[in-house]
Design a protein that fits this description.
Layout (H helix, E strand, L loop, with lengths): L14 H29 L6 H19 L1
Length: 69
Amino acid sequence: MTTASPSQVRQNHHQDSEAPINRQINLELYASYVYLSMSYYFDHGDVALKNLANIFFTSLMRRGNMLSN
C-alpha cells in the first residue's frame, strides 16, 4: 500500500495518533473494495456461485454501515 498524503482538514490531533487512525481507515476501505470485487466475481455467469456472492455482498454492506457511522 502507498503512504497516505497529509490531511487537508486539520483537527487538534497529534500526528502520532492521527497516522494509525488514517491507516485503519485505509485498511477498512481496502477490505470493502476486496469484498465488492469478490462479490462481483462470484456473481459472474461462468463462476455461478451466487450464494457466495451474496455472502461477500452482505459483508460489504455491513462494513459500509460501520464506515458511514
